């Protein structure tokens, strides 16, 4: 049997010393808290709220969660936590050239690049679309565009380039592309070849504007006001061909200022605080500010579930188009420019196909902004049935009536709409618009010239603004009468 020599055991003095040292280390946070109070500001630098104080367990589940909750609360308030993390950040970055946070990768000359959403794989073209994946993306946006077009809503897709592409000269070594194509090339080529979807790819314009100054934040993920202004100019030059009042303002109408030089506390889009390197890493934070008074008022302005800001603005000119902007976080820098040209702008910072917002706000134009590496994800759920898409496409393929009561005549709500001497044999598609609430029934009455009649009824629908009905072909010319309680508009197109 092995025995421990008494010479190997700590003596009484050593034991007391270790015990006292342990007690001091254990009690030191309590002492500091008693003198300074319990801090929680280091978490603020990481742009999050410090963990809440745990509550006493009341059942088995809360008892199991209590140790982790207590640990998170203690960790966020440990004395000198911010100083220790700053020291850690300086050691990792200044000595080893490594980013202190996994979400950002250190590049050259104090540039950092986002690692989320498979950004590096997208830039390198290391994961191109499989045919079925590409089909899913293209078909989804084609269906969405057609659903909107059937409701007289124009659609424009904008794909901002990622910082990895625009400032590849600052990327870390060994991140070169494996080919010249990315998923964006595949997607836009397929959209152009297979669909009528209108899109803008700002890549070329962004690259051409690089001599103007920094277009993206070196310490962040996004473009700055300069980059957003370049995309705004390109987009609204294209839109101005269709809409009056949408020609972009020239840069001479704006002040271009570095807010960080005016307010040192302002960092723009920067991860330096989250890395606890705020004093070590600084950057330009450009703002493009109108020289003229803002022509719109902010109706609402609030955070959304994706972490960006949603808002509603109204312009002093009600003749401008109503715009719905559906965007990722790059849109935070884009929507102030859009608001200069929209009688009403509704901005949603969450990438999806918002059927209910179209129904509620009835926009003239929907702009969908999605960062190019968003194509590494699954396409957003359209939440529209195949039958609805078929009806929308039937309406778009039908032939508008020329002349007569059915072409551009003023519609008087509550009075049946009558289309006279509609040539047959033809079928038709009926579109009815009403306020998006409640239910209604649409009655369609065909009076043939021989005196016979046919009546069709569109089923009751609840909550939807637009309803479509396909009428089967009839023999000979006919008068068509359509009635709907509470209708805002009734239209007929021939098949």
Q: Mind explaining what this structure looks like?
A:
By secondary structure, the protein is of the alpha+beta class. The protein is built from 14 helices and 19 strands. The chain has helices at about 10-35, 40-45, 60-75, 80-95, 120-125, 130-150, 165, 185-195, 205-210, 225-240, 260, 335-340, 355-360, 385-395, and strands at about 105, 110-115, 155-160, 200, 255-260, 285-290, 295-305, 310-315, 320-325, 345-350, 365-370, 400, 415-420, 425-435, 440-450, 455-460, 465-475, 480-485, 485-495. The termini are far apart. The relative contact order is 0.09.
Q: Between the first and last Cα atoms, what is the distance in angstroms?
A: 100 Å
Strand order of the largest sheet: 4-3-11-9-10-8-7
Largest sheet: 7 strands, mixed
Q: Provide the β-strand percentage band.
A: 15-25%
Q: State the helical fraction.
A: 25-40%
User: What would you call the structural class?
Assistant: alpha+beta
Give the CA-based shape.
elongated
Unreliable runs: 1-6, 403-408
- Counting DSSP H or I runs of 4 or more residues, the number of helices is 14
DSSP strand count: 19
Determine Rg (CA atoms, Å).
31 Å
Give the overall pLDDT as a whole number.
84
Features:
495 residues; alpha+beta; disordered N terminus
Give the topology.
Blueprint: H1 12-36, H2 41-45, H3 60-76, H4 81-96, E1 104-106, E2 112-114, H5 119-124, H6 131-149, E3 154-158, H7 163-166, H8 183-194, E4 198-200, H9 203-208, H10 225-239, E5 254-258, H11 259-262, E6 286-290, E7 296-303, E8 309-315, E9 322-327, H12 335-338, E10 344-348, H13 355-361, E11 365-369, H14 386-397, E12 399-400, E13 417-422, E14 426-434, E15 439-448, E16 453-462, E17 466-474, E18 478-484, E19 487-494
Parallel strand pairs: 3-4, 3-11, 9-10, 9-11
Antiparallel strand pairs: 1-2, 5-6, 7-8, 8-10, 12-19, 13-18, 14-17, 14-19, 15-16, 15-18
